[in-house]
Amino acid sequence: MTELSALVERLDTMRGTPVLCIGDAMLDRFIYGNADRISPEAPIPVLCIERENAMLGGAGNVVRNLVALGARPTFLAVVGDDDAGREVGRQLGAHADVDPCLVVETGRQTTIKTRFFASNQQLLRADRETRTPLSASSRAQLKSRAQARIAEAACVVLSDYGKGVLADPAAAELIAMARAAGKPVIVDPKGTDYTKYKGATLLTPNRKELHEATGMAVDTDQAIVAAARKLIETCAVEAVLATRSQDGMSLVTADGDVHHLPAQAQEVFDVSGAGDTVVATLAAAIASGASLLEGAKLANVAAGIVVAKVGTAVAYADEVASALHHDDLAAGESKLLGWDAAAEMVDRWRRKGVKVGFTNGCFDLLHPGHVSLLAQARAACDRLVVGLNSDASVARLKGPTRPVQSEAARATVLGSLATVDLVVIFGEETPLDLIRTLKPDVLVKGADYTVATVVGAEDVIGWGGRVVLANLVDGQSTTNTIKKMSV
């Protein structure tokens, strides 16, 4: 198993992990229109509004990213008794996997960031907000609810946007509570005095924030490391992950380890919310048992996906997995898709009247028997989808010395064949869930099976499909090939 395919397996373990996110809730509003004339009242454009939408912002965007990665977040925040606060509640309610825990403070303005766009160009941002610390009553409610939920969380995130929820002494109190319960704490910091985050597991400042918090230069790798080490010493934290825009990320730990991760994005369209994506990915990874370095590598890939999108976006687990697989490809065009994208593709084929076939296997060291099976499968349908066992599932089936080739390499070889139209990786013991997701018209396996023993046969026949048993090529198997190689 390669390092990148191991990270793909880590993505699977992140699903359902409980993460407690505490921070400043916001409502991001986007107003779009045309600006084809100048106001007669002042030298400013007149925006003719065409549409608008709203989404969770601030710490709420961390929650959106956690959901996209398959984690199970609890969101503890404070909102005002206003329309924006109620809209935040409605937005959270739209995510079934989120446990919303909102403290309502009368007289507080829920933060609203309104962005005006014309032809995808941002003209203006207007903010409504309260920046004062919480009232004593609200802070007491926040602490009480946090105490009740920290025990259930595998990781705690403090997302500080400087709007008062984590103002002194709230952040320090929450960190102390979490650490006393043995929970790792990741902080997305704000301001210049990071001592209020003393005892946290990890701080995630960007380059500018790192400079402002330390007063040190941050223009080289060595300077970044020196500034990060100053934070580690003064704030008694275990590590600092400095995000550096086009220069990637740098992870510096209290143990002396330093890792510089190159930027992943090929094109940058919008950096809005990239920091939230980093924090969410780190939290989900660490909650699943990953090391800080594994979490940082996944966060780096996720951030690269988000900055290539327009607007405050999220990185989905399937997108991260696909990016990891593509990074692991040596060459050639990949037909590899995640489950959701593959289901959409199959649905589009089916609506065009195309008959979709499915077969599966490890396909480790492709041999004539594999080629024959795939040719027979393709002959039985119009489009062939191949379900490919992940590295981890091959190891469970074949033993610790297998596979010989990584899942990315095997997917590349399969994708290079004209008989194969789509490759989808699955990590389960059988492809049954994948078959039920794709609902193929034709299910193909080798003739060493019977229809009764083919996994998914009953389902496929049940929705009107058929099962095809392909002829085998005598003496062809990867196991035999490996045996010959070892003689």
Question: What does it look like?
Answer:
There is one protein chain. Helix content is 38%, strand content 23%. By secondary structure, it is α/β, with parallel strands linked by helices. It has a 9-stranded mixed β-sheet, sandwiched between helices. Helix 2 (59-68) crosses helix 8 (274-287), helix 6 (207-214) crosses helix 7 and helix 8 (274-287) packs antiparallel against helix 9 (292-306). The longest helix has 15 residues, at 136-150. The model is unreliable at 478-487 (pLDDT under 50).
- How many helical stretches? 17
For the sheet with most strands, the description reads: 9 strands, mixed
> What proportion of the residues is helical, as a percent range?
25-40%
Task: Output the structural class.
Answer: alpha/beta
Brief description of this entry?
With 487 residues, the chain is of the alpha/beta class. Helix content is 38%, strand content 23%.
Describe the structure using short key phrases.
487 residues; alpha/beta; nine-stranded mixed beta sheet; 17 helices; 18 strands
How would the blueprint of this fold be written?
Layout: H1 3-14, E1 18-23, E2 25-34, E3 48-58, H2 59-68, E4 72-80, H3 83-93, E5 99-105, E6 111-118, E7 121-128, H4 136-150, E8 155-159, H5 170-180, E9 185-188, E10 202-203, H6 207-214, H7 221-235, E11 239-243, E12 249-253, E13 258-261, H8 274-287, H9 292-306, H10 317-327, H11 339-351, E14 356-361, H12 368-379, E15 383-389, H13 391-398, H14 407-415, E16 422-426, H15 432-438, E17 442-446, H16 457-462, E18 466-470, H17 478-486
Parallel strand pairs: 1-4, 1-8, 2-6, 4-5, 8-9, 9-10, 10-11, 14-15, 14-17, 15-16, 17-18
Antiparallel strand pairs: 2-3, 6-7, 11-12, 12-13
